[in-house]
Amino acid sequence: MQTRVGTSSLRQPKTAGEHAFLPPRVLLHTIVFLFLIGALLARPVVTLLARSGAAYGALSRRNRASVTIVSRRAIVIRQRRRATPVGTLLPTPKAVDQAPTVTTTILPPLPSEPTPPTSTSTPSRSAFRDPVPILTYHYIRPHPGSDDPLGQRLSVDPATFQAQMDWLAQHGFTPITLSELAALRAGLIPAPPHPIVLTFDDGYRDFYQNAFPILRAHGFHATVFVITGFVGQERYLTWDMIRELDRSGLVEIGAHTVHHLDLTTLAHPESEIRDCKDALERALGHPVTAFAYPAGKFDARVETAVREAGFRQAVTTQPRWATSGDDPLALPRLRVTGDLTLAQFAALLTE
Q1: Among 83, 220, 221, 338, which residue has the fewest nearby CB atoms (within 10 Å)?
Q2: Taking 80 as the threshold, does the pLDDT of residue 228 lie above it?
Q3: pTM of structure
Q4: pLDDT, tens digit (0-9, with 9 covering 90-100), for 189-209
Q5: To 5 degrees, how large is the angle CA 310–CA 203–CA 314?
Q6: Which residues have CB under 8 Å from 109's CB, separation 6+?
């Protein structure tokens, strides 16, 4: 009886070549699986490459640099898949991890903006050279009686002061501090329309009571010169008032010595100058760089002491507008007296 041999009961031995190939179905599934894995791994690279153009366009010129995209696993798999003949086993994950890093660099395009100026280029803002009036005030109070003729001349009635400030505003003047004038001359800040410096000598309390509210309403800046030995006395500012004025951002506090003495008559004027500066800086917590000579009196020796104390601007009583050629430690000023009419006030400011 002949035995029927079926394919299910007896298998023929495989040749050596057949061991190198996977069954077609398994090979197909493997290729599809690895293709999907490669696509998922490559997607971040493609997305990043697609977005890099838009992201690069949003970068400022200063921050633009080469954008480097590194993807090792996806690129290696894609390269190996393209180079692998059908029927060849793909590399293992371990082999992929040990593959060398492949880096793709996107170089930025040439900048379209103009080349920035070099350090030797001329600054865009030039120093301010126009003459500037510096006004001198003392009291802002009602006129005293006839028994005080000097006080009458040094006192500007609050209503008159209000009219003067209104006139400045209506005619486009910009009151600034003495330090701001120095910054203008150096080209450190832009020039405002028609700059003018308002200074107030001696640190009288009526500045805080009568002048400051008017200046604040207009947004005007001013410099107040304080006699530190008189602070807190009946007619003078207190330290709290001085600090409040300083913190306002409108008022610069300057030095006017300790006792308001004629510095040219002192054998050693340095203490009057330095001690005043030190007291103000302790109270305010920052440098004080503006100085006013008492009664406008100074000489070369006094000016040297003022410079060595660290002051950068100082004012006198020489009656004219300040020019860019003036010594910054000997600036002229125009005095506003109590009997000045509004027309005369306007004439002071018309060259």
Answers
A1: 83
A2: yes
A3: 0.66
A4: 999 999 999 999 999 999 999
A5: 30
A6: none
